[in-house]
Every structure is written in C-alpha cells, then in structure tokens.
Design a protein that fits this description.
This protein is an alpha/beta fold. The chain contains 20 helices and ten strands. Bound molecules: 2-acetamido-2-deoxy-beta-D-glucopyranose. Keywords: Endoplasmic reticulum, Glycosyltransferase, GPI-anchor biosynthesis, Membrane, Signal, Transferase, Transmembrane, Transmembrane helix.
Amino acid sequence: MNWFLWILIGVFIALQPSYIHPDEHFQSLEVLATRIWGIKGSIPWEFTQVHSARSFVPLYIGYWWVFQLHGILSPIWVLRLIRLQNFGLYLLVSRYALNHLMHSGTQAEFVLQSSYIAWCHQSHSFSNSLETLLLLIALSLYNDLICTPYGKHAMAKSAVLSVVIALGIFNRITFPIFLVLPSIVLFVKFYLRSWRSLMVLGFTLLLSALSFIYVDTLIYGCSYWVIAPWNNLKYNLDETNLAQHGLHPRYTHILVNFPQIVGPAVLFLQLPRRSLRGWLSDIPLLSVLSGLVLLSVFKHQELRFLIPLVPLILMSLKFNKYWEIYGVKTWISFNIIMAITMGVLHQGGIVPLLDVMREEPLGVHIWWKTYSPPTWMYSNQRTLYSTTNFVDDVEKVDNIPFSSIHDHVVDLKGSDEKLLNYTLDQFLLQTTNVQLIAPNSIAHRLKSLQDNYQFQSLQSWPIHLDLDHIGQSGKILGISRYSVVRR
Ligand SMILES: *[C@@H]1O[C@H](CO)[C@@H](O)[C@H](O)[C@H]1NC(C)=O
C-alpha cells in the first residue's frame, strides 16, 4: 500500500510545470523541437554544427516518439508526457536494479521511491536522469556477470552491456567515471577468464559507437565524421572553458551537493561491516566511490552531476538503529519539503505563462530576472531569441536586434535596471507591442522606471518561487507579465 502512495506523489510532482535548471530544456527538448517540429529556438553551442559536441542519439531514442504527437498535444502536454515517461522508466529500472544488485530490498525500495530526486530530477529531461537509468542497467549486468560467470547468457549480456555503455558515453562524457572501480572488478573476476565474452563486448562496443557516430554525422549534416563525445571531452579538458560555467571548490560535491541529495539520511547511514573481499564485491558502493572521487577532481561541480549516484548510495549503505525511530519521519518531511520547493514551486510560473502566451500573436517579449524561457514552448516558426552578452565582465545588450519587433523573445537574464531601461526604450521607439515578464520578488525594482513607463499587469501566476532574489522584497512567490507603454 505504501509504495502506491509514493508513486502517486511522484506522478503528481512529475506533472507539475516546475523548472529546475535550464539544461533540462536547452540540452534536450529545445534541440529536438527545433529539429523535429521545424520551429525556431535557441540552440546551445554544443549542438551547433561547428562544435557538434553532443550526440543526438540518446535524445532521439528517449523523446522522438513524444515529439511525433505535435498537433495532438500542446507543448505543455508534451512536457508532461516526457516527465511521466521518465518517472515511469525510473521506477522500472530502479526496481530491476534492486533485484539484481541487492538481496533483500524492502527498506532500499522505500527510500528509492520516496526520494525527492526521484520525483523531481529523474522526471525532468536532464541528460543526468537518463544517465541514472543507463548506469543502473550497466551495474546490474556487471553484477550478473560477476556473480554467475558461467551463466548461460554471458555473451548476450556482454553485448547488451556494451550498447548500454556506448549510449552512456554518447549521452554524457562523464559516464565512464561511474564505472571505473566496478570495471576493474568485472575485468578481473569475469572477462579475464572469459575471452570470448570480452571479444563480444569489444566488438559490439565498437559497432555501437560507429553507428552512433554515423547517425550524428547524418543529423549534423557534416562532411566529416562527428565524434560527439570526443569533441565534448576536448572542450571540457580545457579549464578556461570550464571557468565560463563557474568554478567551484573541489569539496563542493562531497560537502555541499552530497548532503543535499540524500538529506537527513546522511545522519543515519553507516557503512556495512565487511571484509575487503566483501567491499570488492559491492558493485553499487564501488560505483559511488568512483563517481564521488573522480567527479570531485573537476572544478565544475553541479548537484545534478551526482543524481545517478542517489539510488546507488541509498541501496548500498545500511541505516543505523535510530533510523526507524527518527530517521523515517525526518526523511519523509525533508523529501516532501524539497519536492514542493524544487518540483512544484521552483521557477514554476514560466511554463504556464508560456502556455497562454503562445496562443497570442507574439510581438516583443522581454524576460527579466527569470530562468531562460524555453523558447520551444512558443512552438513558433519565426521566433527570434536574443540575449545579453558580456564584455570584460560587464553585461551588455550589443547582440539584441532592436529593429525586430515581431516574434522576438528577449532574455535579459539577471541584468540590472539600466539595461532593462535601455532595452524598453529602444523597443518602444519602434513598437507599442512590448511585454515584460518578471518575478514578483523584484516588482519593486520596476518603480525606478515608472517615471518613464507604465507597467500594466496582464496576468499573474502565483506558483513561482524565485530563489535568486530572496530577501530583496517581502515577496518570494509569483511571476507577472506586464504590457509596457511609454508615459
Ligand atoms: C531610462 O532611459 C531614459 C531614456 O534613455 C532616460 O531618460 C531615463 O533617465 C532612464 N531612467 C533611469 C531610471 O535610468
């Protein structure tokens, strides 16, 4: 009965229009919608032909079918369906992994299904969510091959494993990091004694990689071979490139991100008492160690990089005796609060506003102090997306073509009032059809501009949490769109 409740909550959260991080749109759905629907959007550099640093293969496998429902479903329902699919797949795959990686699993099953990471991050369209699924399947196959090396289907399993690994690498270049220690054990305990399976593994891996390279080359339309993971690796090994995405201290994953993803469970975890032999056969734990240690080497450390580790951490560690008394209650409270924050409220007004606005003729939409609007949800064949640029760390609007006054989406991001003022001024010289979309938390900052402009509220959406501007005014909830006219 209990599991039914957690799944119900998960489905509810998956259906909410919250927006956790721009990559959930721009690294996946935005790219697919522009390709498949032929609409205009904002393509990140990784997916441009010059860089071709991300593979299309995992995206097409994961979401192509949903985009075929264009015309039947509105973009917001496409989004909901994708989130439901991702959550459903997580339930199936984590169940499968529990069966293959653990012997008794009732407690692990409960924490796996009631973690807010499962409800929020796994249901959203991050490449990291797909990475979790591929990692769980790969490790389950590892465990099978190690535990029953003379089993019937070793060769078939090796073939499936290599396809999963290839997909993982083409999905995110960091995928092999999670497999380092488990792979050593797998090699010593199985492949060293089973050369035929090793050959099957190598051969299928090569074949999968070649076919993915072929598909990417076709999709990018290049005259040379596109090896997306290789292009991505070259970029990421250059620290000046990483610096553009923000550098973090090396302890961020361990001291900041890890406690955030497992919450109070961290207080009740204990390492199981085992011999060295026992440790070496614990595949989930070896993967957690590889992931945590090696990802900590890189200086760009975002919380979502760790989400593939969540089910593994929760299934490989044991809880101490206080878990039943205090742990379960704090765990449930923590996850409900985090789920409401990240899965319901966080930047939650952007998608519902877009759903209304895409039905109206689009003039100039200026987004200010919000996460980047997922332009694919305008589902518009003419959208022009423009945004700010930086010159010596100073934000500018040099790249915004102010003469484009139709179907123009302007993303002013976190820029200051002066840039907003200048942008409004330039557009209002040419058109009267200008709308501003801004969170209520910074509504007071529009006052300084009220001598020049009148902001007429057209629509408000209360379910929108703006964590970036907390404490700047009494409000933290809500987002509004205004029609702007000159006084
Ligand atoms: C906004 O821009 C207008 C036109 O350039 C200018 O006259 C006005 O002083 C500016 N207001 C603020 C608050 O900067």
